[in-house]
Amino acid sequence: xxxSARRLLISIILLLVFFTASCGTQLDPTVRHxxxxxxxxxxxxxxxxxxxxxxxxRELGEEELLEKSIEAxxxxxxxxxxxxxxxxxxxxxxxYVEVSSREVxxxxxxxxxxxxxxxxxxx
Length: 123
Hints:
Elements: H1 3-22, E1 32-42, E2 45-49, H2 54-59, H3 62-72, E3 80-84, E4 96-105, E5 110-119
Parallel strand pairs: 3-5
Antiparallel strand pairs: 1-2, 1-4, 2-3, 4-5
């Protein structure tokens, strides 16, 4: 393989890496905290929504829960997040929790790995 072919191959690889990295989900390395109710669970994840009441979990559907949460929130960040947790059996739907996380995927609902989860007394 000649020098020009090698340079072309390296250039193409670098461009692919650049485009792949720029199209990815943005991650935020800061520690974040969310308080809210666990409204759903699947496998090793818990779904936490803030700014709702415990009774809302039984009475409202997901879209209505999200709408209420958004209306009550001054900040649109961390209002509905699916958290991966190491011991999902420690929690149940209806628990009021504080969750700490680092890298939050920029989606809706957001997704993150929980660094710490504490079950709290209800507000």
